[in-house]
Amino acid sequence: MSTTGTPTAPRGDGSANYIVVFKTNATQDEISSFIRGVKDQGATVNHTYTNAFKGFSAMMKPAHMRSLREHNIIEYIEPDQIVTISPANPTPQAAEPQK
């Protein structure tokens, strides 16, 4: 797996999109309260994730993002960026038949 490009383009105020992932033991009440607080601090929540992991994506300033890392229900935060999957070993060419 590799990343291509850069994180989503920052706005004029330095805000960029980030994905915030909660720890697996975070309760739905904790998550809902946390997301409300993030919105109250000026972030724009773009999407919430509930199937593969508990989390959300949001447009926020880098300083705001760094402050969120201190909360005990956060597993990690990373820039929202394009990820592609490419084969580790390309398919080898077929060998020439022996004569």
Describe this structure in words.
- A four-stranded antiparallel β-sheet has the order 3-4-2-5. A two-stranded antiparallel ribbon has the order 1-6.
- It has a domain of 67 residues: Alpha-Beta Plaits, CATH 3.30.70.
- The N and C termini lie far apart (40 Å).
- It has 99 residues and is α+β, with helices and mostly antiparallel strands.
- The chain is elongated, with a radius of gyration of 19 Å.
- The longest helix has 13 residues.
- It is built from two helices and six strands, in the order E-E-H-E-E-H-E-E.
- Helix content is 20%, strand content 31%.
State the CATH topology of the domain at 2-8 and 25-84: Alpha-Beta Plaits
Strand content of the residues, in percent? Answer: 25-35%
Order of secondary-structure elements: EEHEEHEE
The description of the largest β-sheet is:
4 strands, antiparallel
**N- to C-terminal separation?**
40 Å
Globally, the shape reads elongated
> Strand pairing plus helix content: what structural class?
alpha+beta
Under the CATH scheme, which architecture of the domain at 2-8 and 25-84 would be assigned?
Answer: 2-Layer Sandwich
Question: For the largest beta sheet, what order do the strands appear in spatially?
Answer: 3-4-2-5
CATH classification class of the domain at 2-8 and 25-84: Alpha Beta
C-alpha-based Rg, rounded: 19 Å
DSSP E strands, number: 6
DSSP summary: helix tally: 2
How confident overall, as mean pLDDT? 84
Helix content: 10-25%
Low-confidence stretches: 1-6
GO biological process, one term: vacuole fusion, non-autophagic
Protein name: Inhibitor I9 domain-containing protein
Pfam family, one: Inhibitor_I9
Family: Belongs to the protease inhibitor I9 family.
